[in-house]
Amino acid sequence: MMRPWILPMLLVLCGSAVAAVLFFEGSPGPAAALLPAFLALAGVNSPLIFPRSIGALDAQRRGVLDGRPVVFWRPGCKYCVRLRIRLGRNARQLHWVNIWRDPAGAAAVRAANFGNETVPTVVVAGRPHTNPDPEWVRGQLSPST
């Protein structure tokens, strides 16, 4: 359970340490600028911005039942973050699978991407799409969801 928080916590600790050193060396301006930058990076890489991940098999089953896309992602992926942010509130309508926490999800991504774990991989109606445009993904959501 703690593994997803390792990178964000390291970013917070490193940012705090760098800001403290700069502050005590007499550079409060750069310290004040660096700390929020590190905190923003920690927030973007934290599990907080992504909807709760489910297992790949469950996501695929749900996707077939309700017609919603399945998004395979991993923490720290800037393209996954871009997709999540650009989808905004609509992101909660998709089924999210963290491939670092689900071996079946990682296997599904490798099968769709010639052995590579390239994310985000979005599966719509059984067809995988690697790093699709967020607007296209939004268009795949039915108006009723």
Would you give an account of this structure?
- The chain folds into two domains: 3-48; 52-139, 3-Layer(aba) Sandwich (Glutaredoxin), CATH 3.40.30.10.
- It contains six helices and four strands.
- It has helices spanning 6-24, 28-44, 56-66, 78-87, 103-112, 134-139; strands at residues 70-73, 95-98, 121-124, 127-130.
- The protein has a four-stranded mixed sheet.
- α1 runs antiparallel to α2 (28-44).
- It is elongated.
- The mean pLDDT is 90.
- Residues 70-127 form the Glutaredoxin domain.
- It holds the Pfam family Glutaredoxin.
- This is Glutaredoxin domain-containing protein.
Helix content: 40-55%
Give Rg in angstroms: 18 Å
The whole-number mean of residue pLDDT values reads 90
Put simply, the count of helices is 6
Global shape: elongated
Question: What is the structure about, briefly put?
Answer:
This protein is of the alpha+beta class and 145 residues long.
Secondary-structure blueprint:
Elements lengths: L5 H19 L3 H17 L11 H11 L3 E4 L4 H10 L7 E4 L4 H10 L8 E4 L2 E4 L3 H6 L6
Parallel strand pairs: 1-2
Antiparallel strand pairs: 1-3, 3-4
Pfam family, one: Glutaredoxin
Keywords: Signal
Protein name: Glutaredoxin domain-containing protein
